[in-house]
Structures are given as structure tokens and as C-alpha cells.
């Protein structure tokens, strides 16, 4: 029944949240603002432009379009510098083994990420070869919770949404999957990802035949 697995990148396959946090926090110094870790949580799954808008809103700062574009570039340059050292050790526990299992079982595999830097990260960590299709922030116009990123992933794989299982760590991402008519596996806490069909805390020790046996 299920033919494809669609993976979010940040927080599901690799842990880049720390790099986004460092870069946003440093950027906040331009307008005297200290981003907290709790706020960083709320930026998960959210596009770069939208993240800046939220931060400026928390900081109570009204910025010109010029400043905003300058800051978006500055944040990304810093982020690129931080991820330039990424390597296969930064693949989250159990992920490679899980990808191995589903590949052998014949599932198609796609990426569905809001990040415009997804391909760089997949290449640095050696994850690229697993993917049959990649839909990232450069290919979508609407951010999660809009289902666009996952619907485009299904389309690229030539499967219907009902044949897809999405793996997500963000509330907005789980919502996107469900709105798109897909099954959603949350990676994180049940209390947070309560819209997901199943929730696991990580891929470590996970057997695909047990996880993907939806009714
Ligand atoms: C998402 C992250 O995957 O990508 C967000 O969870 C990030 O934190 C977004 O803002 C956009 O990423 P990038 O790499 O295009 O700035
Ligand atoms: Mg994520």
C-alpha cells in the first residue's frame, strides 16, 4: 500500500538546529536581541524569510526591506560557514540503518525540506545517494504547514499522497503531511507532535516493518 518515504532534513536526518541557532543569535546582535533556545524551537521547519520576520517581531524591531535582505544574507553566510565542516558523523543515530532497510524493501525515497541549503548538507554528510527525488526550499513557494513540499515530492516520485509516509520533527511539517493526505511519523515528543500517526524519539533501533505497518 505504501510506496514512498518522504523525509524532512533538519532535525530528522541531521541536527542542524544548533547551527541555525548560532547564526540567528549572532544576527540578533545587529539589533541588540538575544534569541533564546525556546524561541529557536519555534523556528523549526520555518523558512529563512519567515524566521527573520518572527525574530524581528519578538524583538519589537521594525526593519526596512533593505536591512532585512542584508540580514538574510548575513545569517546565511554565517550558517554556510558553520555547516561547511559537516560530515557523515552528523547523521542522526539510526538514520543510515533505517534508510538501508526501506531501500531494500523497495520504498522510493524523497526529501521534503524548507531549506535552500539542503543539497549542500546531503553532499557533506554523504546522504545524497539515498534519494530518488529532492524537493527543497528552492523548489517551493509555500512554507510548511502548506503541503506543497510533500505533494511535489509525491509527484516527482510518481506516487499518490495516500501512498506516502512523511517523517517530520516539526509541528508545521506534521501538519503539512496530514493536510496533504499522507501518513506522518513524528520524530520527537508525543506531547508536541500529537497530530502525527506515530511518534518515535529517534530512528535508533527502529525496524521499518514494525514502524510502517499502518492499518
Ligand atoms: C528548515 C529548518 O529545515 O529550513 C529551519 O528547520 C530553517 O530552521 C529552514 O530556517 C530554512 O533553511 P535555510 O537553510 O534555507 O536557511
Ligand atoms: Mg525539521
From TrEMBL:
<dbReference type="GO" id="GO:0008801">
    <property type="term" value="F:beta-phosphoglucomutase activity"/>
</dbReference>
<dbReference type="InterPro" id="IPR023214">
    <property type="entry name" value="HAD_sf"/>
</dbReference>
<feature type="site" description="Important for catalytic activity and assists the phosphoryl transfer reaction to Asp8 by balancing charge and orienting the reacting groups">
    <location>
        <position position="144"/>
    </location>
</feature>
<protein>
    <recommendedName>
        <fullName>Beta-phosphoglucomutase</fullName>
        <ecNumber>5.4.2.6</ecNumber>
    </recommendedName>
</protein>
<feature type="site" description="Important for catalytic activity and assists the phosphoryl transfer reaction to Asp8 by balancing charge and orienting the reacting groups">
    <location>
        <position position="113"/>
    </location>
</feature>
<dbReference type="Pfam" id="PF00702">
    <property type="entry name" value="Hydrolase"/>
</dbReference>
<keyword id="KW-0597">Phosphoprotein</keyword>
<dbReference type="InterPro" id="IPR010976">
    <property type="entry name" value="B-phosphoglucomutase_hydrolase"/>
</dbReference>
<keyword id="KW-0460">Magnesium</keyword>
<feature type="active site" description="Nucleophile">
    <location>
        <position position="8"/>
    </location>
</feature>
<feature type="binding site">
    <location>
        <position position="8"/>
    </location>
    <ligand>
        <name>Mg(2+)</name>
    </ligand>
</feature>
<feature type="binding site">
    <location>
        <position position="51"/>
    </location>
    <ligand>
        <name>substrate</name>
    </ligand>
</feature>
<dbReference type="GO" id="GO:0005975">
    <property type="term" value="P:carbohydrate metabolic process"/>
</dbReference>
<feature type="binding site">
    <location>
        <position position="144"/>
    </location>
    <ligand>
        <name>substrate</name>
    </ligand>
</feature>
<feature type="binding site">
    <location>
        <position position="24"/>
    </location>
    <ligand>
        <name>substrate</name>
    </ligand>
</feature>
<dbReference type="InterPro" id="IPR051600">
    <property type="entry name" value="Beta-PGM-like"/>
</dbReference>
<dbReference type="InterPro" id="IPR006439">
    <property type="entry name" value="HAD-SF_hydro_IA"/>
</dbReference>
<dbReference type="GO" id="GO:0000287">
    <property type="term" value="F:magnesium ion binding"/>
</dbReference>
<feature type="binding site">
    <location>
        <begin position="8"/>
        <end position="10"/>
    </location>
    <ligand>
        <name>substrate</name>
    </ligand>
</feature>
<comment type="similarity">
    <text>Belongs to the HAD-like hydrolase superfamily. CbbY/CbbZ/Gph/YieH family.</text>
</comment>
<feature type="binding site">
    <location>
        <begin position="43"/>
        <end position="48"/>
    </location>
    <ligand>
        <name>substrate</name>
    </ligand>
</feature>
<feature type="binding site">
    <location>
        <position position="169"/>
    </location>
    <ligand>
        <name>Mg(2+)</name>
    </ligand>
</feature>
<keyword id="KW-0413">Isomerase</keyword>
<feature type="binding site">
    <location>
        <position position="75"/>
    </location>
    <ligand>
        <name>substrate</name>
    </ligand>
</feature>
<keyword id="KW-0119">Carbohydrate metabolism</keyword>
<feature type="binding site">
    <location>
        <position position="10"/>
    </location>
    <ligand>
        <name>Mg(2+)</name>
    </ligand>
</feature>
<dbReference type="InterPro" id="IPR023198">
    <property type="entry name" value="PGP-like_dom2"/>
</dbReference>
<feature type="binding site">
    <location>
        <begin position="113"/>
        <end position="117"/>
    </location>
    <ligand>
        <name>substrate</name>
    </ligand>
</feature>
<feature type="binding site">
    <location>
        <position position="168"/>
    </location>
    <ligand>
        <name>Mg(2+)</name>
    </ligand>
</feature>
<dbReference type="InterPro" id="IPR010972">
    <property type="entry name" value="Beta-PGM"/>
</dbReference>
<keyword id="KW-0479">Metal-binding</keyword>
<dbReference type="InterPro" id="IPR036412">
    <property type="entry name" value="HAD-like_sf"/>
</dbReference>
<feature type="active site" description="Proton donor/acceptor">
    <location>
        <position position="10"/>
    </location>
</feature>
